[in-house]
């Protein structure tokens, strides 16, 4: 994050360099065509200016080969760019397995971030260099958007569901992040900084003061205080599906259909339990909408993940 | 070029005027389809997202009132067609009678709609702060009722406009304004009326019947 | 035709002088004039809002106005410019005036509906302005839920009702054009003899008719959500925040083509006239308009690559967005080829058209950056996007609109404006525009998000450049206002066809009589039927200097 004037943002994540390569390729193509067209226009306008002594016999009214040529060449170039950008986009969207998971909650007008160990921070994001980092994000009110220019990543943060964003910082330093989706009066105050540290510095920062309990521990406490275990257990008294080992598995639903038990499915099942019932179970569970906030939800889900040790990380689809 | 009285000044002849008006009406109906299309899209999306909540919420609607209204509307389309036929063949008395019958049936539809609405209000099944719902997923049910009121409300608004136009036509017809050569407003209003009818033919199964 | 004859003759302007004869006119030309005055007012209003927030953005800190005011300013700018200027500008002013003239009709098919459109437009505008005055609107012109439906406590509902009514004006205008083009063409005016301006308006009308109702519905639902408590977009009930965006962009992306297709039509006419030859690749330009309108309905999802729509949906929308570039490129190539072996005269409309081609090319090429999903991730909702769509909508549509106003000014008013001032205004606008918006591409790449009231100080240099450019641009827009109004009184009489252009509109008087033609024209030749190598007449305004022009004009007054 440099306060002085620059012409391009820093390249601080694993995708920044390829992003810029694609960008400069497109700029090159654009300059070629843009300048070419302008030169052609200026030359023709000058050569065929009214009254100039040039050959104007048989002006053509159209030429099929020319039309095919100048629709075909841009089409091929456009398709090439499409393929490259789609490949890069898929990379940018598919979080590596075993990425370190942080929770981000946006609200008017601040960012609340929680680390795997439970450490919280506001409008600052400390991450270790060289590690894959995955942000699981949700909003408490309107739509926000988490944007780190130096990493070339951005993702909307929506109320009522989780969205994901991942990156791998490659350079230590501090970089800005912004809210990029207009969210009301103090939208422009919803900014902060990413601090990329060496793993050792990050570890010592983590162990610094103000530590909270890890989210899965808080989630376990919530799980117990809501007495979820009285129904979600094995045996005859188990009126709900067993939750151990559930996260990341395919679930067969009553009335047909399959769904992956990912963050969004668990969230929906806590808030609107009647929507997608697991095959073989009744619609008995009451809704917990209004009784549990965004943070509580994230903690509960963190707990459910922690009791599914070999549950694979679901492939990101959103 | 001799201009007939019912041909507007900027048209060359009656045929051009007829072509323009009917094409204009069809284009207008196309915009209407898209107008309702946005609502149907929202409905389809939520229906597939929350099938059980929607099925359960839908059971709070009266299939019988809805069915009655469907029959009434189909009847009104019939009288509208008969009115057009009467206008074309010059039976003024028939024309006036069928137009009023159409108005009457449209009014009957709205009256039944009012009964249904007041029943929903009495049971607090209207979206907003007063919403009360005894069943799973009240939030999703509230979305169902939001869509129910939005879709049937827009439809009812179209009915009100349609009834006003048909009633105006009836008054004009009684004064002998329409002849076999000049009855474009009757035909165009008929198209509109059938369209509003068809929208209901889609609304009824989607909201009342599919469980 | 002598000047005296022109003033004695009855035409649509002197047919009657009462206020009612204007406010309740059913003459498409008078309605075009009403729209001209109305959209000029809205343009100045939206421009004033832009001036205010460009001043605020001179410094990184928010110091000139409050954050609330700033948010109101950019919302007013967006709402007014999109719904009350750009969408009606070319169709409702030039289209209204010219569609019947170009196809040889006496009027549009539904003159009263046309008047209704204008009244709806004005009532909608008044309601929206009322909302701005009484409580402001701070949602941005996109009205995204749930901010607009639940959280904003400004006059959002009132503003939306105004926009809704204006939408109806747009639907009725589109309907009128389609029916008119289908049923009112003069004898001999086959589809492939139509000027390409008509094809462009036909394509744009399809979008007005098919897209506008969808946005109308979705905006009404937002109003119902705010007033009656409907919950279709409410995430607390399980409502999907993306549903609004899908339905909104289903209209609002094609809406860009409502602005740019008629602009392309204008530019096509100007280039043919000032190259003095038949347009190159007539059918390709005609069908590319339809292709753009059709494909335009399939690409809305490219506004939502990072909104949470599925990755696979994003890939499809990206692919289709790349395809839209092709018909646009085809048009640019055909215009360029039209210059070849022509008699190119760089008069004011042509200078504007050249400016259009340059700016539209930049806007179109940067559109490819945003169609590329990976690049869009970084550019989305930054100043890069702001720069891109201003290159299309201001660099493109407004340049063409002004070019068209200049080209048909003699037809509309019967007067010639001052040629040198015309060229100067085009050049000043071109330069001011680039200075305003080119730095914004860099700002976006550096990561400055749009709709920011205060910003980190490393962005200041480029913001100052942009604000400086905006002041030049603002002056550029005021110059034509002055000399065009001036020409009404002091300009020389234009005669029916000052440019030596082809087309039915040039075969009647300037200004045209109320019913456009003395006798219904019969078309016997193709559009742009310029004879090869034929020299167009010299303009009365071009040989002399500024002072002599106005003297001539003065002496021709009776």
Widest beta sheet: strand line-up of chain A:
3-2-1-5-8
**What's the gyration radius of chain C in Å?**
23 Å
Mean pLDDT of chain C: 91
- For the largest interface in this structure, which chains are involved and how many residues does each contribute? A-C, 92 and 98 residues
Descriptive overview:
The complex is a heterotrimer of chains A (318), B (211) and C (558). Helix content of chain A is 32%, strand content 19%. Chain A has 318 residues and is α+β, with helices and mostly antiparallel strands. Chain A has 3 domains: 10-44 and 66-93; 100-206, Cupredoxins -  blue copper proteins (Immunoglobulin-like); 215-306, Cytochrome Bc1 Complex, Chain D, domain 2 (Orthogonal Bundle), CATH 1.10.760. In chain A, helix 1 (16-47) runs antiparallel to helix 2 (64-93) and helix 4 (215-225) crosses helix 6 (294-306). Chain A is elongated. The relative contact order of chain A is 0.12. Residues 311-318 of chain A have low confidence and may be disordered. Chain B is mostly helical and 211 residues long. In chain B, helix 1 packs parallel to helix 6, helix 4 (92-122) packs antiparallel against helix 5 and helix 5 (138-174) packs antiparallel against helix 6. The longest helix of chain B is centred in the C-terminal third of the chain and has 37 residues, at 138-174. The two termini of chain C are 15 Å apart. By secondary structure, chain C is mainly alpha-helical. Residues 1-6 and 541-558 of chain C have low confidence and may be disordered. Helices cover 68% and strands 0% of the residues of chain C. Chain C has one domain (30-550): Cytochrome C Oxidase, Chain A, CATH 1.20.210. Chains in contact: A-B, A-C, B-C.
């Amino acid at each position: 994050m440099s306060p002085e004037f620059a012409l391009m943002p820093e390249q601080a994540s694993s995708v920044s360099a390829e992003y810029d390569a694609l960008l400069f390729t497109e700029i090159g193509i654009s300059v070629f065509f843009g300048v070419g067209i302008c030169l052609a226009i200026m030359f023709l306008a000058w050569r065929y200016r009214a009254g100039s002594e040039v050959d104007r016999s048989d002006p053509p009214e159209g030429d099929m080969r020319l039309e095919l040529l100048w629709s075909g060449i841009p089409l091929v170039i456009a398709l090439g760019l499409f393929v490259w950008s789609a490949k890069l986009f898929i990379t940018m969207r598919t979080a590596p397995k075993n990425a370190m998971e942080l929770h981000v909650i946006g609200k008017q007008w601040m960012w609340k971030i929680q680390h795997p160990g439970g450490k919280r921070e506001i409008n600052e994001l400390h991450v270790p260099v060289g590690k894959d980092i995955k942000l699981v994000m949700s909003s408490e009110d309107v739509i926000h958007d988490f944007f780190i220019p130096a990493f070339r990543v951005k993702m909307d943060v929506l109320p009522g569901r989780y969205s994901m964003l991942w990156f791998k910082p490659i350079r230590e330093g501090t970089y800005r992040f912004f809210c990029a989706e207009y969210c009301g009066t103090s939208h422009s105050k919803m900014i902060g900084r990413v601090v990329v540290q060496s793993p050792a510095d990050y570890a010592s920062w983590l162990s610094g003061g103000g530590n909270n309990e890890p989210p899965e521990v808080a989630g376990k406490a919530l799980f117990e205080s809501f007495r979820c275990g009285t129904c979600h257990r094995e045996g005859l008294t188990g009126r709900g599906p067993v939750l151990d080992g559930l996260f990341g598995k395919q679930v067969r639903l009553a009335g047909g259909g399959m769904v992956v038990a990912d963050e969004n499915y668990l969230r929906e099942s806590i808030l609107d339990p009647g929507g997608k019932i697991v095959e073989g179970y009744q619609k008995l569970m009451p809704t917990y909408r209004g009784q549990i906030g965004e943070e509580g939800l994230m903690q509960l889900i963190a707990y459910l993940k922690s009791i599914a040790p070999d549950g694979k990380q679901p492939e990101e689809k959103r | 070029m001799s201009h007939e009285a019912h041909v507007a000044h900027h048209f060359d002849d009656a045929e051009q005027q007829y072509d323009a008006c009917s094409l204009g009406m069809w284009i207008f109906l196309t915009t209407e389809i898209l107008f309702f299309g946005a609502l149907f899209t929202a409905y389809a999306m939520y229906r597939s997202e929350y099938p059980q909540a929607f099925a359960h919420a839908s059971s709070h609607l009266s299939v019988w009132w809805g069915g009655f209204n469907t029959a009434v509307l189909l009847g009104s389309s019939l009288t509208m067609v008969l009115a057009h036929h009467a206008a074309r063949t010059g039976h003024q008395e028939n024309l006036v009678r069928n137009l009023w019958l159409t108005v009457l049936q449209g009014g009957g539809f709205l009256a039944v709609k009012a009964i249904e609405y007041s029943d929903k209000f009495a049971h607090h099944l209207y979206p907003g702060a007063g919403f009360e719902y005894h069943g799973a997923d009240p939030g999703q049910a509230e979305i169902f009722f939001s869509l129910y009121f939005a879709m049937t409300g827009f439809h009812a608004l179209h009915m009100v406009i349609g009834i006003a136009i048909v009633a105006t036509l009836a008054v004009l017809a009684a004064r002998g304004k329409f002849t076999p050569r000049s009855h474009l407003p009757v035909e165009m209003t008929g198209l509109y009326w059938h369209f509003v009818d068809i929208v209901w033919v889609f609304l009824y199964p989607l909201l009342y019947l599919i469980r | 035709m002598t000047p005296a004859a022109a003033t004695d003759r009855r035409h649509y302007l002197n047919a009657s002088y009462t206020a009612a004869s204007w406010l309740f006119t059913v003459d498409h030309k008078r309605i075009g004039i009403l729209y001209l005055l109305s959209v000029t007012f809205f343009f100045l209003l939206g421009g004033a809002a832009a001036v205010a927030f460009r001043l605020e953005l001179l410094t990184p800190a928010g110091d000139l106005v409050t954050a609330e005011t700033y948010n109101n300013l950019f919302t007013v700018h967006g709402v007014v410019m999109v719904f009350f200027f750009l969408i009606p500008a070319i169709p409702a002013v030039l289209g209204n005036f010219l569609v019947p003239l170009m196809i040889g009709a006496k009027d549009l098919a539904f003159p009263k509906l046309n008047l209704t459109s204008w009244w709806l437009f004005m009532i909608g505008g008044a309601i929206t302005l009322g909302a701005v005055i009484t409580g402001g609107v701070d949602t941005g012109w996109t009205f995204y839920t749930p901010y607009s439906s639940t959280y904003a406590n400004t006059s959002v509902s009132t503003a939306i009702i105004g926009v809704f009514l204006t939408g109806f004006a747009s639907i009725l205008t589109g309907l009128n054009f389609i029916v008119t083009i289908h049923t009112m063409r003069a004898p001999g005016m086959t589809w492939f003899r139509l000027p390409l301006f008509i094809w462009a308006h036909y394509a744009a009308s399809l979008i007005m008719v098919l897209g506008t109702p969808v946005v109308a519905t979705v905006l009404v639902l937002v109003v119902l959500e705010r007033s009656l408590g409907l919950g279709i977009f409410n995430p607390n009930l399980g409502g999907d925040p993306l549903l609004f965006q899908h339905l909104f962009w289903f209209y609002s992306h094609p809406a860009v083509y409502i602005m740019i297709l008629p602009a392309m039509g204008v530019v096509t006419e100007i280039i043919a006239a000032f190259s003095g030859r038949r347009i190159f690749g007539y059918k390709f330009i005609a069908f590319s308009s339809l292709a753009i309108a059709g494909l335009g309905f399939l690409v809305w999802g490219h506004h939502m690559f990072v909104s949470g729509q599925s990755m696979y949906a994003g890939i499809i929308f990206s692919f289709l967005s790349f395809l839209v570039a092709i018909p646009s490129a085809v048009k640019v190539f055909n215009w360029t080829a039209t210059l070849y072996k022509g008699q190119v005269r760089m008069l004011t409309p042509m200078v504007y058209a050249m400016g259009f081609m340059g700016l539209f090319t930049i806007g179109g090429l940067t559109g490819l950056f945003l169609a590329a999903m990976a690049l869009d991730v970084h550019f989305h909702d930054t100043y890069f996007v702001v720069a891109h769509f201003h290159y299309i909508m201001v660099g493109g549509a407004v340049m063409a609109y002004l070019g068209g106003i200049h080209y048909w000014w003699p037809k509309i008013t019967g007067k010639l404006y001052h040629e040198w001032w015309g060229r100067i205004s085009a050049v000043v606008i071109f330069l001011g525009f680039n200075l305003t918006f080119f730095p914004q591409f860099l700002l976006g790449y550096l990561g400055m998000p749009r709709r920011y009231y205060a910003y980190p100080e490393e962005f200041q240099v480029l913001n100052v450049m942009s604000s400086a450019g905006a002041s030049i641009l603002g002056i550029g827009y005021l110059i034509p206002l002055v000399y065009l109004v001036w020409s009404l009184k002091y300009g020389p009489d234009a005669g029916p066809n000052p440019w030596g252009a082809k087309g039915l509109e040039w075969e009647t008087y300037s200004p045209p009589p109320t019913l456009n033609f003395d006798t219904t024209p019969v078309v016997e030749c193709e559009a742009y039927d310029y004879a090869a190598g034929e020299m167009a007449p010299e303009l009365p305004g071009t040989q002399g200097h500024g002072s002599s022009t106005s003297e001539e004009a003065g002496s021709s007054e009776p």
